[in-house]
Amino acid sequence: PPDEALFLLLHNEMVAGLYRAAEQGEGENGRCTTKLESMGFRVGQGLIERFTKDTARFTPPLDIMKFICKDFWTPPLKKQIDNLRTNHQGIYPPQDNKFRLLTQISAGKQYLEHAPKYLAFTCGPPPGGLLNLGIKSIVTPPLSSMPACK
Question: What are the entry keywords (predicted)?
Fold first, then answer.
């Protein structure tokens, strides 16, 4: 679909543009990830407002995480999270076995060092959305093999 291609092109250009500017001395390279996460955070706040305007209030955190993994994640990334687990101590690591933004790079380990910059923007929407639902959260994307991420 055209909207999918546009999203991928926009995302790749955001990442490339920020890192290009940092290399040319217009910003710090380390701040690029923070800037991308901040942009994603604001997108998450807007999306959650739109997606929950006609929804009853969620109460248990597990119901909120199920909503995030199914209804919130699906429209921009065109698939649900593959697996959601909990350690019953407030940690819910969702897992995407074939993350779209990483499949554009590689299915091998040769580009593993570049993967975090392509995950930074998408680490922002879940905390942004969750904060609007009253839950403070942190997203850290551990990578061990591409294109999977937790």
Answer: Endoplasmic reticulum, Golgi apparatus, Neurogenesis
